[in-house]
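User: Design a sequence. Structure:
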């Protein structure tokens, strides 16, 4: 296993570009494939690409907001105190890798924006406290927990299709969460993955101390420094900025609204998730000034996502306008049966996610075809929808786009951790495939 890990690590260090360069290359590759495979002109394709560049602007904002708000929640004093307590009980490198994986996984299951950040934070704390921890691995391990979001409370596709009025309601109706993320096969998968993934990640830790790269001491020095206070005078404005009464009043009002929202029978969606973590963060930070300070820090972690999301929107526009996504889906579905459709849906979703790393946008291009195929073959619509979600979450382990926050927090390069993520991706893929086949034949 160590030899295979070293092979992928060395390979990625030589050939893996930065995430933005990867997005540019993927744009050009998709453009060329569409011209070669599909019946579309250069002018038409270029126009579709340019027109689609800003199609996901509202969704981009939602993604940026959920990540920034998640960052604030993950860096709140109460969260930081809990993470310090957890890190203080860890004393060996392999245990540190296991704990980082678990924190990233549980955080992502609750909310993907929170999980992305809290995993990176605990990994950095553990790397500082525990001598002998291989820093690139523990960052990769914490990030690998992100795959749990596809099984969790912020899984985009299951939440979308459980919401009345979703764009495919006429074709598939409303699919409740009890049939997707809370179904027995997915609950079993979540438990198995939560047990095995941390163990697998720990097994990737280098045995030879000479191969261990510990955290840069400069990062430790920065983490110990105290930030200057925003305002030190005693004016009325300062008192308002640092008012706990204002923070708690607006925070409690937000939580009360959230309770009313669910009591009225409404379901989870991105807007209510963002709403909850915004006001929960305000309560945990305690004052408006503290919240703004943490928010400003969080914005730095999403700069790469804000830059790259339009490029992936353009890629998705190329695939939709040219019919390339239908060609890919047809290729897999044409060899499918009632029992194998979900497997091929999982695999095709994995490959499509390189071009469309947003689950919501991904579903918009692959969902209609998968639902039509499921209904034609008499297969489970809920199962095949979940297969697309799992393919998306599986690919996200190696999709450079979502790794950006982890890289921003760790100060590492993509090539430093990608070799480990490839190994983890292969392992998780085996579990997802077994789960999908088990669901098809046993449930």
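Assistant: Done.
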């Amino acid at each position: 296993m160590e030899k295979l890990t070293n092979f992928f690590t060395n390979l990625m260090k030589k050939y893996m570009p930065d995430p933005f360069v990867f997005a540019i290359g993927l744009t050009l590759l998709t453009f060329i494939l569409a011209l070669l495979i599909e019946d579309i002109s250069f002018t038409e394709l270029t126009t579709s690409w340019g027109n689609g560049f800003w199609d996901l602007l509202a969704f981009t904002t939602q993604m940026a907001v959920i990540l920034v708000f998640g960052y604030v929640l993950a860096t709140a004093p109460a969260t930081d105190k809990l993470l310090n307590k957890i890190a203080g009980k860890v004393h060996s490198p392999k245990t540190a890798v296991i704990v980082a994986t678990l924190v990233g996984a549980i955080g992502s299951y609750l909310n993907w924006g929170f999980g992305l950040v809290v995993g990176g934070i605990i990994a950095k704390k553990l790397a500082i406290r525990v001598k002998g921890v291989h820093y690139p691995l523990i960052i990769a391990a914490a990030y690998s927990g992100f795959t749990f979001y596809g099984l969790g409370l912020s899984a985009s596709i299951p939440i979308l299709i459980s919401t009345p009025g979703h764009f495919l309601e006429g074709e598939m109706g409303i699919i409740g969460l009890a049939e997707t993320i809370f179904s027995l096969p997915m609950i079993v998968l979540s438990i198995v993955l939560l047990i095995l993934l941390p163990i697998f990640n720990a097994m990737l830790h280098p045995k030879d101390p000479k191969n261990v790269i510990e955290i840069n001491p400069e990062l430790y020095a920065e983490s110990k420094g105290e930030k200057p206070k925003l305002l030190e005078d005693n004016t009325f404005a300062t008192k308002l900025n640092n008012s706990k009464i204002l923070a708690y009043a607006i925070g409690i009002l937000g939580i009360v609204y959230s309770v009313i929202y669910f009591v009225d029978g409404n379901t989870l969606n991105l807007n209510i998730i963002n709403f909850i973590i915004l006001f929960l963060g305000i309560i945990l930070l305690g004052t408006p000034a503290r919240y703004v300070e943490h928010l400003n820090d969080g914005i730095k972690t999403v700069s790469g996502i804000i830059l790259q999301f339009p490029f992936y929107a353009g890629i998705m526009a190329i695939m939709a306008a040219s019919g390339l996504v239908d060609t890919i889906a047809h290729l897999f579905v044409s060899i499918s049966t009632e029992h194998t459709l979900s497997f091929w849906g999982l695999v095709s979703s994995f490959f499509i996610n390189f071009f469309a790393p947003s689950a919501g946008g991904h579903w918009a291009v692959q969902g209609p075809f998968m639902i039509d195929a499921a209904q034609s073959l008499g297969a489970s619509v809920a199962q095949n929808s979940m297969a697309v979600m799992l393919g998306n979450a599986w690919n996200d382990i190696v999709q450079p786009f979502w790794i950006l926050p982890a890289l921003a927090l760790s100060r590492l390069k993509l090539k430093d951790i990608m070799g480990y993520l490839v190994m983890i991706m292969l392992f998780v893929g085996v579990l997802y495939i077994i789960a999908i086949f088990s669901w098809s034949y046993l449930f």
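The longest helix spans residues 414-442. The radius of gyration is 22 Å.
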